[in-house]
């Protein structure tokens, strides 16, 4: 006799399932296929447009979503086994960060490609990308730590003390994860302000070297950030309600409408409006330095730093000597600090 999913109480604290509802096989399979098609399209586009250095992160993000929903599809057949459910949940939690990082990388290329000064908000295009990607990495690590704790649970035959400890650990994990996505949302808002500053400079046209196509790409960037924001707000509201007795956590439809669908739309939107269609030519990518060139640049930076230190030391010595001469001209001993009789 097979497992009766409909009659099982998934919301019970004694449940050993990763899910809080009877998971749908058709829905999971559908999203696995759709994310898979988006991933394959991104791979093809990366090579066709010559944008692998830019597109690898969106490829990885959509691939994680594909794997996550593939595992979820398999887990629907064994909903009480966490061997498939836990990695699926973790990948679903973390994949949006890669899609987010792609938006950061796209704006950096836009600043480099469209603006003559190649900077916005007094930040260079390459540094802008590095700053926000590192902030995304920090959010990734925090969310990974939280997700790892959230997905753990006690066994059905565990003692009451063990179950209480497990529930407490899950709540700590939720708090950490919520902090991570809150951190992510904050920097998305800051980044949106930077993108708006780019728009202001582009509209004025004073610093614009390529007056076409930036509007479409910027609109797509804002739209995908909005989709990520919808997903983050859903998670914040969901987890703030608790684990076992919240409407958002115990009904699968909210997961697909407010988590899976926004991320799929974001990935597919980048398929339709791929940056490679708009960022064309050698100026569309950051200059790629060889290892020797990077070493030479680093050595030159050290040399300039050493020169500045030497110049500062020489200037300090000259000022000191000038002060001694001035004291002597006044008839004062440079050593004793008293007037000579």
TrEMBL record:
The chain crosses the membrane at residues 18-40, 52-71, 91-116, 128-149, 176-196, 216-234, 254-273. Residues 302-329 have a biased composition (Basic and acidic residues). The keyword Manganese does not apply. It is a multi-pass membrane protein. One of its GO terms (cellular component) is membrane. It is found in: Membrane. The keyword Zinc-finger does not apply. Keywords: Membrane, Transmembrane, Transmembrane helix. Residues 297-341 are annotated as: Disordered. This is Uncharacterized protein. It comes from Drechslerella stenobrocha 248. The lineage of its organism: Eukaryota, Fungi, Dikarya, Ascomycota, Pezizomycotina.
